[in-house]
Amino acid sequence: MMGGLIQSGVSTARPEPPLSVCPRLRSGALSSDRKRPWVKMTERYDCHYCKESLFGKKYVLREENPYCVKCYESLYSNTCEECKKPIGCNTRDLSYKDRHWHEDCFMCFQCKRSLVDKPFSTKDEQLLCTECYSNEYSSKCHECKKTIMPGSRKMEHKGNSWHETCFTCKRCQQPIGTKSFIPKDNQNFCVPCYEKQFAMQCVHCKKPITTGGVTYRDQPWHKDCFLCTSCKQQLSGQRFTSRDDFAYCLNCFCNLYAKKCASCTTPISGLGGSKYISFEERQWHNDCFNCKKCSVSLVGRGFLTERDDILCPECGKDI
């Protein structure tokens, strides 16, 4: 589950360059000292680029160099994204992500209303007011069916979207936010509420089973709680058996309760359809039920006994 933030735009106004008017230039005048007159002086103040005089004209300073308005706009003014004309010195320059507009050109692409000092969004590089964007592109809340406005936080899960305040637990009605939750029957539940309402309790530890679990004799167990009564090894995923309602792995069950083969003395489990031979309170594995002398298998054949040994009729005829 992930929350998302719909991106919206904020324009910034580029400050207008300060315009100045070049004052009337002063010239020299005769001194009262008739012996030495003042030399007539005229100070020039020209455009840094075209070198024309700025006398009596508006000009712009850039890096302490004066420019006439025409040169400044041709050299440094930005081009409006809408009308493709330069943005002059006397006009506000509105910028967004290195793009620029005249103040009058900064408007919604669909409804043409001004976006100056208002929130907006972009789609395919087009400017849209929040209302037009919402009507065309915004997600609808799965709970209240209303539009999720640009700039607001939304929660998403399996293709559905919610307002953050609408994404709540069905049982306790508290916002889920970015916490873990469990969906059930198209409804969302926080983990504590789900466990209280739906989760089975382990017959061993009495705690809720939220994932996985094992059923034995129609009772639920955590995998970590379903263990061999003797060795405490986990029984999930392996063969086991029981005695007196207690579960055992095969090794423990055989060592504790299985009869021993009269020939090899290892346990005879009798599990999984394995066959064994029983005679006079003694048992043999099928593979161990052989003549003591010639080792021929006696399964399904007649045999004789001599003390603790079993013999085929051929070997036993001299007894």
From TrEMBL:
Q: Which organism is it from?
A: Nothobranchius furzeri (Turquoise killifish)
Subcellular location, principal: nucleus
Q: Which Pfam families match?
A: LIM, LIM_FHL2-3_N
Q: Name one GO molecular function term.
A: zinc ion binding
Protein name in the entry = Four and a half LIM domains 2
Keyword Metal-binding set for record? yes
Gene Ontology CC terms: nucleus; Z disc
Q: Which UniProt keywords apply?
A: LIM domain, Metal-binding, Nucleus, Repeat, Zinc, Zinc-finger
Answer yes or no on keyword Membrane: no
**Subcellular localization:** Nucleus
Where would I find the LIM zinc-binding domain in this sequence?
78-138, 139-200, 259-319
Q: Which InterPro entries match?
A: LIM_FHL1/2/3/5_N, Znf_LIM
